[in-house]
Specification:
Elements (H helix, E strand, L loop, with lengths): L1 H5 L6 E4 L2 H4 L2 E3 L4 E10 L16 E5 L3 H9 L4 E5 L2 H10 L4 E5 H10 L3 E3 L5 E10 L3 H17 L1 H8 L6 E2 L5
Parallel strand pairs: 4-5, 4-6
Antiparallel strand pairs: 1-8, 2-8, 3-6, 3-7, 3-8, 3-9
Length: 177
């Protein structure tokens, strides 16, 4: 999606605000804040996200996802292994015996519920701010999208959409002044 926006092939897309992306496209204010955390095996010694940034620790991520970009910037010792998607990264974690899979809390919790041999860490390594991105050079469009997002948050529509899609634990972003 980011490449499509950057090349002007898409008019807008819903994606996470990331410094690398913000250098090339314009964003609305965030409408949702979701947590990035880790999925590990039940018996793994890891209790907090900081426990995983160690030599020899291999973490599966979805290539180009917001949490991939964040972890690429912040991890010092652990190694990232990239899969084509977030779902595929969980499969990579399981099939290759990696120490963890990074992802969005809701998706990781869902996978752990389906597999009693897995658990999700309680803390997070980042808060991911979801927004609408648009190609640069469209000031009227960006102004409209910014106003629209703020209206949808204030009216409760964002909360209703999250609840209706089973994402009750996702947080509606606060208003932007």
């Amino acid at each position: 999606m980011f490449d499509g926006l950057d090349k002007g092939l898409l008019d807008l897309a819903f994606l996470a605000i990331e410094p690398e992306r913000a250098a090339k496209i314009d964003f609305s204010p965030p409408h949702v804040i979701i947590e990035g955390t880790y999925l590990v095996r039940t018996g793994a010694p890891f209790r907090t996200v900081s426990d995983l940034d160690q030599p020899g620790v291999r973490i599966a991520v979805g290539r180009g996802a917001a949490y991939d970009l964040f972890l690429t910037r912040t991890l010092k010792r652990a190694e990232l292994r990239r899969a084509p998607t977030g779902a595929a990264s969980i499969d990579l974690f399981l099939s290759d015996g990696l120490e963890a899979a990074a992802g969005v809390r809701q998706a990781l919790v869902e996978r752990a519920r389906a597999n009693p041999g897995l658990r999700v860490l309680d803390d997070r390594f980042t808060n991911i701010q979801q927004a609408i991105g648009m190609p640069r050079g469209r000031p009227a469009g960006v102004a409209y999208v910014k106003a629209f997002i703020e209206e949808m948050k204030a009216s409760g529509e964002v909360r209703k959409a999250l609840d209706a899609t089973g994402q009750a634990s996702a947080v509606v972003a606060p208003p932007v002044k």
